[in-house]
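ok trying again, last paste got cut off:
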Amino acid sequence: MNKSLRRAAIGVPVMSLALLALPGAAQAATAPTARSGVSAQAPAAALVTKLTHSQATSRFRAAGITWSSSGGCSDRYNSTCTSFEQINLATVQGAETLKSASGCALNVTGGTETGHASGTYSHWNGYKLDFSLSTCLNNYVTSRFTYIGGSKYQSGSGNVYYRESNHWDVTYYNCGGC
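nice, full thing came through this time. structure:
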């Protein structure tokens, strides 16, 4: 990779969300469930670095990872868009690790936009990405990761790959060995 591109992709300032989960502390992140502003409470993870959509797409572009949306947009509040606003740095690094380790073409079809299931380790909270199905990715996941039941596979680093009907739903608890 070109050194100046690498510096641009890695050296971009990031917003940090440093929430320390203290015993007994009631900290939560809110996730709008609809444009109306109705929100659900979910516990926030400790010490998470968040990226903007632009920062994430710069890193994906540099790694050769593509993305698409059924609506051709990136609005976080529109479920037909694919947004990376407020994605965790470790999630982006996990996708970069998957791309590098597998050698597969990766296309992200779901990020942090509304419309996915809620929860602590959710799309909205920056922990998940959806990838298009491909023979390469299917073979890589099913042959290298541990089957844990219900169409789910777990990588050695603990990240979970769930094969849904038309995509892989991946939960990144960490960067996967970056």
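cool. The chain has four helices and twelve strands. The longest helix spans residues 89-102.
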